[in-house]
Predict the structure.
Amino acid sequence: MLTIEERTVLLQKKKQQLKNQKRQQANREQKEKEQMDLRRKSLLGEIVLEYFPYLVKLTPRSTAEENRIEFEEFRGIMESVAEVIKQSGGLNNELARRASSSYD
């Protein structure tokens, strides 16, 4: 039979184990989310480069300000595209409209 102190120690250990398991699970989930985000960005980047091949000539710089200047023209293009999509009722509506018009 365990003493009260021994049971208390065991409960504290169990509590710490559960806390560690939750933290590890949260870390795994965060890492999976980051990997999915990275994969998504990579795939989107490939698509963008397919339609804007000249962008491969742009070089990431060492500061945020230098990057802002380097990519300013492309950022303007993307703002224009986003505005067109917004005015057309959203990306899903635009994709559906284009899909249906391609069969006409």
Summary: The chain is about 80% helix and 0% strand. Residues 1-52 form one domain. The CA atoms of residues 14 and 58 lie 54 Å apart.
